[in-house]
Amino acid sequence: MDNDGHLVYPGLLTSSAQDKLTQSLEHIHSLDVIEGHEPNRFSAEYDSYLEEIITHPQMLDLVVKVLGKEVRYDHCVSLNRPGGNSGIGWHSHGYAEDNPNLGFVRIFFYVNGFKMDDGGLKVVPGSHLFRDARIQARSDADLKTGWMVNKHHPITGQPLSIDQLSVLPGTVILVWTHAAHAVTPRRESSGTRWTVVYAYRNPGKPSGARWISPEYEKKHLLDSTSPLKDFITLY
Ligand SMILES: O=C(O)CCC(=O)C(=O)O
Ligand SMILES: [Fe+2]
């Protein structure tokens, strides 16, 4: 995770979790968009199964392994991509550029997986180490001749390169928020790629992506009997 900027757990989600997640994501997809309360951006507030995952013991165990004990929940966004979806160009996200001790991790649940040329995630190993919140390019060629030019992996010394992933259904992928990433278009003939992302961070700086409604913020996600309550403050 720290060398590459991402970590893939192939087929980690059980088939029952995959089924429930698909139902939840179909539900989110079917809801009307209300200005300021877009269901896809506030997915956990619209679906109790998606909400339960924020504090699932295995999820928090994973988050604590990556970020340490001081963690905050940041957002839960559905990233469903129907056939014909255009994907997204190269970009990174920002958080605490001036303090490498503050981490921000995105945990993607690729419920029905993807192929590299069909709604597939692309990454640049080592790119997260530059902590650059402004990486942007429309194509692989633009990234190679632009941001990547003359850059080497700060740990291995190798020239940076693009990794095109293909993953099984039920795959979970962790990505440090500053990593360069992009998504290939979904083929017209393919069904919807069902995906949800959970983001967590170390507290210390304001987060630009913190899609939590003021009402939801008042809700106690960990009940008073949870052993995790003593060391995790989710908000
Ligand atoms: O849809 C995806 O696979 C990734 C979307 C993305 O770039 C993000 O959520 O940060
Ligand atoms: Fe992104």
Labels describing this entry:
19% helix, 5-stranded antiparallel sheet, 19% strand, single chain, binds 2-oxoglutaric acid, Jelly Rolls, alpha+beta, binds fe (ii) ion, 235 residues
Shape: globular
Per CATH, what is the topology? Answer: Jelly Rolls
- What is the helix content? 10-25%
Oligomer: single chain
Low-pLDDT parts are: none
Give the end-to-end Cα distance, rounded to a whole number of Å: 25 Å
Strand order of the largest sheet: 1-8-4-10-2
Please, what is the average pLDDT? Answer: 90
- Alpha-carbon Rg, integer: 17 Å
Total helical segments: 5
Number of domains: 1
Specify the CATH homologous superfamily: q2cbj1_9rhob like domain
Condensed summary:
With about 240 residues, the protein is an alpha+beta fold.
Give a verbal description of the structure:
The chain has one domain (6-230): q2cbj1_9rhob like domain (Jelly Rolls), CATH 2.60.120.620. The protein has 235 residues and is α+β, with helices and mostly antiparallel strands. The protein has helices at 15-30, 48-54, 57-67, 140-145, 214-217; strands at residues 6-9, 72-78, 88-91, 104-110, 121-123, 136-137, 163-164, 171-176, 181-183, 195-201. The radius of gyration is 17 Å and the shape is globular. The strands form 2 sheets. Strands 1-8-4-10-2 form a 5-stranded antiparallel β-sheet, covered by helices on one side. It contains 5 helices and 10 strands. The longest helix is centred in the first third of the chain and has 16 residues, at 15-30. Bound molecules: 2-oxoglutaric acid and fe (ii) ion (FE2). Fe (ii) ion is lined by residues 91, 93, 181.
